Amino acid sequence: MKVKQLEIFLKNNPGRLADISHTLAENAINIRALSVADTADSGILRLVVNDTTKAQQVLQENGFTVALTDVLAVEVPDKPGTLDCILQVARKGGLNVEYMYAFSKKSGESGMLLFRFDDQDAAVALFQKAGCRLLSDDEIHSL
Fold first, then answer.
1. Helical segments of the chain, H only
2. SS3 per-residue string spanning 10-38
């Protein structure tokens, strides 16, 4: 199972992130997880939201450059060592992590690790075989 993620390309200008958050808030779109990567001139905001289609539409209507990509969302217990367990599965399977970010649903209970691997299809098969719980778009939207 893969989850759709929005990638918004930004110039590093004051207020650009606030413009995005305002646009999403005005349209009742809830951010489930986010990551920001930047360089001196530009950045990429990666978002998993409750309504991907609507978010992409309203952001594009407001002049943002938006792409959709797939990530794997792995539900994990919120306790020490969980990330290591997941990364050891990836390592043994020969997967390369391109990037990742995390979200804790409730401290001490569960969290979500979002991954982009060099081979997403192989990652799905590997994690399912290892008994990991992969979240679907529908599950993310209903959080």
1. 16-26, 52-61, 82-92, 120-129, 137-141
2. EECCCCHHHHHHHHHHHCCCCEEEEEEEE
| Residue whose entry in the numeric block shows the structure tokens 């646009």 | 23
Size (the chain), residues? 143
* Res. 108: pLDDT tops 70: no
Which CATH number is associated with domain 3-69?
3.30.2130.10
What's domain 71-141's architecture? 2-Layer Sandwich (3.30)
- Kindly report, residue by residue over 50-69, the tens digit of the pLDDT: 999 999 999 999 999 999 99
pLDDT of residue 110: 85
The domains of the chain are located at 3-69, 71-141
- Report the C-alpha gap between 97 and 13 in whole angstroms: 29
Quote the distance between the C-alpha of residue 25 and its chain's center.
18
